[in-house]
Design brief:
Layout: H1 6-14, E1 18-21, H2 24-29, H3 39-45, E2 52-56, H4 59-72, E3 76-79, E4 96-99, E5 106-110, E6 115-119, H5 124-132, E7 136-138, H6 150-156, H7 163-166, E8 175-181, E9 189-193, H8 194-197, E10 209-219, E11 224-230, H9 233-244, E12 250-256, H10 258-261, H11 266-269, E13 275-281, H12 283-295, E14 300-305, H13 319-328, E15 332-334, E16 337-338, H14 344-355, E17 359-360, E18 362-368, E19 371-376, E20 379-381, H15 385-397, E21 401-402, H16 410-413, H17 420-429
Bound molecules: flavin-adenine dinucleotide (FAD).
Length: 451
């Protein structure tokens, strides 16, 4: 449609500061993300390839691309680094993929509030480096922080390292504002405050082209990583809960079941084979955590300052755990859920009894609206969609809230309901429905949203 129509292609080529990528191998590569963790998504998405990939160098180029796409009704799918797991950055209906790599600058830092204004395509590892000189760091990081962009994290991610203290990206106070280009006849750059930004937060780029973000940051601390060995799995939960309710600073708290530890990279699994609790805290906090370990009669090993480690625990948590499992055996897939408060073990024990080692447990400590909770990213041996559904039903029946990573839409992978404000924003800023079409379920029933 775009690449085989010379008139349209010519129009894109006339745009100043716009890199155009046309080679078939690049189009294929830049139309994919990490959806292959889900056999269901793999079947649906393997054939989806963009007609054209563009990389704008400035706001004018973004607006020009939007204008051409509006004129010819061409879909645009935004792309950061393409590390999403839900096929968020995959163009379902071909068209243009717009990669934001050149939008990579830290624009402003406010020392009074600690707010940073940064362009959407900035890689989080680079952003954290830039923040160092202000004595600050990002509050929340996905385990892909070395390669993933901040715009992709806000538009497609949820939380990760840091969620133990700061909750999730959509919690009030994390995203302070943003700037986005609209997708209409005369695209414009708009500024959104915290409240106006909410509908664009975790909307998979379906209702605006985010060019920069204003985020709250944290004071930079030296985080130390500690690994605790625990023979009884049930005790790991009790210990982690004791740690999360202690008066210590925490960046991370995770539990890996022994069978998962056994599949992790050699540097990690060789230390000793048992269930493990992984913690990141300040050096002061570590002293308290070591005392807790002593009381529970479990061994702990201080690995050192995370940033200085050749291999740190950040590489074996969140979805990196699944990554390592899959590098051993591609039949592993996973689930994401918030476990029922204070009933975590009832659920885990039920599933262990019913499903045995087909489901292995990986837990992450998070803060949910200020309350310490446990999330789980169990890995599962793939045995077809029926079994997957039965496992999810078991979890739901026992009180878990599932964030299904085997679905394509914002709603099905998240809260399970249509967010009227996200749809209203799409009606306003993308009236033809050209931004990442097929990813916002609410768009199909937009007539219900009276604006
Ligand atoms: C091994 C592994 C571990 C992971 N761990 C975590 C984790 O701990 N926490 C977590 O939340 N996620 C995690 N993820 C998912 C993903 O890595 C993160 O969400 C990451 O932040 C996405 O950033 P990205 O630049 O790759 O975005 P992309 O995948 O390129 O895009 C994500 C979504 O954002 C949209 N988008 C991108 N840029 C813009 C823009 N400028 N304007 C509007 N929309 C835009 C895209 O269209 C897409 O819908 C993990 C994935 C893998 C493979």
């Amino acid at each position: 449609m775009t690449s085989n129509n010379p008139t349209i292609l010519e129009k894109f080529k006339e745009v100043k500061n716009l890199e155009i990528i046309e080679s078939q191998s690049d189009l294929k590569r830049l139309s994919k993300d990490f959806y292959n963790y889900s056999p269901i998504l793999t079947e649906k998405l393997d054939g989806c390839i963009a007609d054209l990939v563009v990389r704008p160098g400035d706001h004018n180029a973004v607006k020009k691309v939007a204008e051409i796409c509006w004129e010819f009704s061409i879909p645009i799918t935004l792309r950061g680094s393409g590390t999403g797991n839900y096929g968020q950055a995959v163009p379902l209906f071909k068209g243009v993929v717009m990669q934001m790599s050149y939008f990579n600058k830290l624009e402003e830092f406010d020392p009074d509030t600690g707010f940073v204004k940064v362009q959407a395509g900035c890689v989080m590892g680079d952003l954290n480096k830039k923040l160092e000189k202000y004595g600050r760091e990002l509050r929340l990081l996905p385990s892909t922080w070395k390669t993933a962009t901040i715009g992709g994290f806000i538009a497609g991610g949820s939380g990760g390292i840091g969620s133990i203290k700061w909750g999730f990206l959509r919690d009030p106070g994390n995203l302070i504002g943003l700037e986005a280009v609209t997708m209409n006849e005369k695209p414009v750059l708009l500024k959104f405050d915290a409240e106006e930004s909410e509908p664009l937060n975790h909307a998979y780029g379906t209702n605006g082209i985010i060019t920069s973000l204003i985020l709250a940051t944290d004071i930079k601390r030296k985080w130390y990583s500690l690994v605790i060995d625990c023979i009884e799995f049930e005790k790991t939960i009790e210990i982690l809960k004791t740690i999360t309710s202690a008066a210590v600073d925490l960046k991370l708290g995770a539990i890996l079941e022994e069978e998962i530890v056994d599949q992790m990279p050699t540097w990690f699994r060789n230390k000793s084979l048992s269930n493990k609790i992984l913690v990141q805290s300040t050096l002061g906090g570590i002293k308290t955590i070591e005392l807790i370990c002593k009381k529970f009669k479990v061994e702990s090993t201080l690995l050192g300052e995370e940033e200085k480690l050749v291999n740190g625990v950040s590489e074996v948590v969140w979805n990196h755990t699944t990554l390592h499992m899959r590098s051993r055996d591609k039949n592993w897939t996973y689930l994401q859920m918030l476990l029922p408060q204070n009933n975590e073990l009832k659920l885990i024990n039920f599933l262990r009894k019913k499903w045995g080692k087909k489901v292995l447990w990986h837990l992450e400590a998070v803060s949910q609206q200020g309350t310490p909770r446990l999330a789980a990213l169990p890995v599962l041996k793939w045995n077809g969609p029926e079994e997957l559904n039965e496992i999810m039903e078991d979890c739901k029946n026992l009180g878990a809230f599932i964030f299904n990573p085997h679905v394509l839409t914002v709603e099905s992978g998240g809260l399970g309901v249509v967010d009227a404000d996200q749809v209203k924003a799409k009606i306003k800023f993308d009236p033809k429905g050209l931004l990442n079409p097929g990813k916002l379920e609410g768009w199909a029933i937009k007539e219900q949203f009276n604006i």
